[in-house]
Design goal:
With 421 residues, the protein is α+β, with helices and mostly antiparallel strands. It contains 14 helices and nine strands. It has helices at residues 29-40, 46-58, 65-95, 108-116, 119-130, 133-149, 160-178, 223-229, 234-245, 250-257, 261-278, 294-306, 313-319, 338-349; strands at residues 184-185, 199-200, 320-328, 331-336, 359-367, 370-378, 385-396, 399-406, 419-420. Helix 10 (250-257) crosses helix 11 (261-278). The longest helix is centred in the N-terminal third of the chain and has 31 residues, at 65-95.
């Protein structure tokens, strides 16, 4: 059968016209890309990872600082992988409370190592489904537990990856059935003219970027897309993510969701107009992959300088588009319009104001493939700058058009400290 089925999903290969040229190995460009990713990130060798951690740890030295930072970054990544493998193995071991059968069994560590290579992409999948990083973390762990419990049911009819996606999608759908999440308009603020209220989604959280991980299409990770997709019913949301974002065929999506191709097609026809209504016009093309641009990084640096309280307020005004939208989930506070927002900021940054908040420092980062500023504040009478807010900026045509300000509890997930001196 070699050469007749896809080397990734094990589906049928497309018919080849003529007899010249190389025989196809994969049924689609998507499967070819998945195979490339799996080769880049093979099943980890736990013993080798442990040895590498020891080697890097033994050579740590405070100087030079650049080498120390490089080694710490490598060490953090490897320790994180080992921690995830150990946690998965522990959970599956705890679940495996029955006596070992006579037939050959799956070793917990080997199983954990096999599924760990899919951890990142499944976390992204769950995050798109529910819009919350914290919930996505929990749902991925539940997915792997379900996979362990149902491992005997994996008969190889689909790829191991597709089998995990089925488990992850069903886990998310079950979660959304238990937790009804419906976007609603923000309440207007008294005595403030702000215009039409945006949609309030208190569960929305940022997702940390990692250039060393699998590159995700920017338009399908941006907060504006995450917010738009939250308006779809869960089943439609799953269909859009699997079909339009991940590039699965309608038949594959139907098989995963245990429905018909006609139902998948109908769900897409209903979902796409809803998304078009809620997405900026330039965000309807999801084919491009991009990182934060140099222009965006320059604007971020100017934004951080202006947000310290020592910068010129005119610089901040120049950076913001006149109709800039500022939201702060899970807090119900929001601002629509540059002047309204700048009035609020000016009072909190003015030491003579009764609402003065403190002195600020910022660190650059990125979230959801967008530039972001991690804000730390030193309150009056204190000496330490403490994590306060993560501002994620959406920039169009050289202007900040949207700021989503998140609470700081996810700083560690971004590799950010909780305090500065």
């Amino acid at each position: 059968m070699t050469g007749q089925v896809c080397g990734m999903c094990e589906g049928p290969l497309p018919a080849k016209a003529g007899s010249r040229g190389r025989t196809a190995v994969y049924c689609s460009a998507a499967c070819r890309q998945r195979a490339y990713r799996s080769r880049r990130d093979p099943v980890p060798d736990v013993e080798a990872l442990i040895a590498e951690v020891g080697r890097v740890a033994n050579r740590l030295a405070p100087r030079p600082a650049e080498a120390l930072l490089t080694d710490l970054t490598s060490l953090t990544a490897d320790v994180g992988r080992l921690r995830r493998i150990a946690q998965l193995a522990l959970r599956t071991e705890e679940e495996n409370v029955t006596p070992a059968p006579v037939t050959e069994t799956v070793d917990e560590v080997d199983f954990a190592g096999r599924i760990e290579q899919h951890q990142r992409e499944l976390r992204v999948h769950c995050y798109r489904m529910v819009g919350s990083y914290d919930d996505a973390e929990d749902l991925v762990q539940e997915t792997f537990l379900r996979a362990w419990r149902g491992r005997e049911g994996f008969a190889g009819r689909s790829s191991f990856r597709a089998w995990l996606y089925r488990s992850a999608t069903n886990t998310c759908l079950d979660f959304l059935r238990r937790n009804k999440r419906v976007p609603r308009p923000y309440d207007p603020l008294p005595d403030v003219e702000q215009g039409e209220p945006p949609q309030f989604m208190p569960w929305l959280q940022p997702f940390p970027d990692d250039s060393a991980e699998i590159a995700e299409t920017r338009e399908t990770m941006e907060l504006v897309f995450l917010a738009a997709i939250q308006h779809l019913p869960p089943k439609q949301r799953a269909v859009v993510i699997l079909n339009d974002v991940l590039g699965w065929k309608a038949a594959e999506t139907a098989d995963l969701l245990e429905t018909s191709v006609a139902s998948v097609t109908s769900a897409l026809q209903r979902a796409r107009p809803t998304l078009r209504e809620r997405l900026p016009e330039r965000r309807t093309d999801w084919s491009r992959t991009a990182e934060v641009t140099e222009e965006e990084q320059a604007i971020l640096r100017r934004y951080m300088a202006a947000a310290t309280g020592n910068g010129d307020s005119r610089v901040m005004a120049e950076l913001l588009r006149e109709d800039v939208l500022v939201t702060m989930p899970p807090n119900p506070l929001w601002f629509s319009g540059r002047d309204v927002f700048l009035d609020f900021v000016a009072q909190s940054l003015d030491p003579a104001s009764p609402t003065y908040f403190g002195e600020w420092k910022h660190l650059p980062t990125s979230a959801n493939r967008l530039p972001a500023a991690a804000g730390y504040v030193r309150r009056p009478g204190t000496r330490v700058y403490r994590a306060q807010v993560l501002d994620v900026l959406r920039i169009e045509d050289g202007k900040v058009v949207e700021i989503t300000a998140f609470e700081p509890h996810l700083f560690p997930a971004f590799g950010l400290p909780l305090t500065l001196t």
